[in-house]
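Might you be able to check the backbone structure tokens below? Thank you kindly.
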Amino acid sequence: MKTSPDRNIIRQRKAFDNNEVLLADVRYKKIYNLLKKFPKRKVLEIGCSDGEFLKLLKVEGWEVKGLEVSKKAVQKARKKGIDADVCDVNNKLPLKDNSFDVIVAGEVMEHLFEDLDFLDECHRVLKEEGILIVTTPNLISLKNRILMFLGFNPRYAIDDHHYHVYTPRLIKNLFKRSKFNKTKIKGNFIIYSSGREKILGTFFEKLAEFIPEWAEHFIIISRK
């Protein structure tokens, strides 16, 4: 994998220093519900931020490991008892082959220079039949389609730290080129979630399961 310029990584570290995991976020809730279907073994979170999600999984019996570009975020995660390391995942992952049962990478792939190289590294690190769960923004969400129809820029397409934007077709083509198989695409919610309005938001969260191309973010599940 290509080595990224130091200046870019410094900018990203500063940008993510104060990020916090919000367990109420629909993406985390849906990832958590997916993980409940699997045996509690070894899970790696790439982009673990302050380690709050891994802390939840550790309490429930998972063996956890975190990687994060921000040094300050890693320090916060370690204070919570999380085994976390600073890592620029544009480069080779500092982990052994076939060492994790599950990898979670939330809102990471769009920040990388070589997304296919990243998937290959995840494939290498996962055990046979291991599961990769990735989330990333959807360029053609229903909200973005409305914004563009009204003459506004779509969100996520113009961002200091985004090097890729994805549509369902781009996601499918990317994973077809990778070593993964049995890939499924789901969505977090459409327009807004239950955090804003309980009844309609819950409906939009459910609808995103069936129409991910309208969702705000993709939730991609693939097996080695």
Remarks:
- The chain is about 35% helix and 20% strand.
- Helices lie at 6-16, 26-35, 52-59, 71-79, 115-125, 142-149, 168-177, 198-210.
- The first strand starts at residue 42 and ends at 46.
- The chain has a mean pLDDT of 90.
